Amino acid sequence: MPDEARVVYDLRGLKCPLPVLKTRKRMATLGPGALIEVTTTDPLAVIDIPHFCNEDGHRLEEAIPIEGGHRFLIRKRA
Question: Domain named UPF0033: which ranges (predicted)?
């Protein structure tokens, strides 16, 4: 998986609900099974992004804390 292509989406500095809204809009342009890496500084993203993935049927493959925020790796539903 480390060599797999992914879309990198930097949403640092945006506050709820913008990280989820922008991620949803960006994912609509991706093909099934695509990977997107989302970086955010919004503290509520640790709740909102997993909830969004669950609701829309995407797989949250990774959620890790980084300096000042979090990084999420999401696989678009097939």
Answer: 9-76
- Which domain covers residue 53, as residue numbers? 7-75
Q: Which residue in the list 14, 16, 21, 73 is annotated as catalytic? A: 16
* pTM of the entire predicted model: 0.92
pLDDT tens, 13-62?
Answer: 999 999 999 999 999 999 999 999 999 999 999 999 999 999 999 999 99
CATH label of the domain that carries residue 33: 3.30.110.40
- Establish if 1 belongs to a structural domain: no
**53 carries an active-site annotation:** no
